[in-house]
Task: structure prediction
Amino acid sequence: MSNKLCLVAVFSIILIACENVNKDRVVVFKESPNKTIIVKDQIVEIQTDMLLGFGEFCIIDSFLVFNEYGSKESKGIHLFNKNTFDYITSTGYLGRGPGEIIGLGSNGVSPDQSVLWVDDHGNQVRWKFPLDSILGNENFLPQEKIAMNPDFFLKEYEFLNDTTVLGIAVIPLSVSSMKMATAKSNFSTGTTEKFGYKHPDIKDRYETYAYFKLSVKHNIYVNCFERIDLMTICDLEGNLVKNIYGEHKNTTNVNFLTCYFKGVDIYKDFILVSYLGKRELIKEEGKAPEFFAPTRLLVFDVTGNFVKSIEIGYQFTSFCVDEDNNRVIMYFNDRDNPLGYFCLESVDL
Result:
């Protein structure tokens, strides 16, 4: 009997210890006017003669890269000098011929900043675009590629080392539905597997929709969720560091018409996330939902503490941080010129 009592006591102590640890790993943030910086009057337009449609940014070496989804031109990937924003060149022929891209997706940048890996969802491959080939040959067509598993493929990812990447993987459920999971992939073998912490309340496919960013410097990766007011920080071994909830904490009764987080990047010792804060989509009978874009960024430190809100004053659909120039570069929905930036020095980070 005494042995059983000892076991029960030890088990109880373990449970209490685990509960205390989990409490230490949960933070609820709340925005407030005294922690909000407005930068609407500080937006600097990026001047270009190109008429660019919706797309996403990334930075490789000294270049700002813009993938233009649905481009009506012959090429869909545009390179600019990240310091001056001068146009350099375009690449990525769109079409169905050899080396051409049928369905342009996102990019991955090699650790040495020498290769752009471009997702092609139409051909279900990743094309290798060496930076020197892009710059040296305006008619460059990639030859090297890596096959994508159509049943489990990375949507966005970053390199841990020369061969291994972490990111958000897509698992198609039907022609019109999917779910997502954090995953690790080996570029040499093409193998992909689920990886790391998963919030215990995330079960429905809508709850899995997330955006991803990692920092080797800080030994963390971040998932911010679109349909849940939740951001998670994990270490690069996949262990939970912090669960960060907004005011509208909702891990049950998830509404697919509600959006919270829409993107994430890391700047120095801070995490920047685009945030709608429970903005409902408008859905009229017989019409597709009208999607809103965020107008603000939230700033957290890399341990998950809320620092401040940055109100942009305009809707933006994508952004990236240029740490060398202390800038946030954005694609805007509701400005005549959709490209612009503001300086992070102006918000005291």
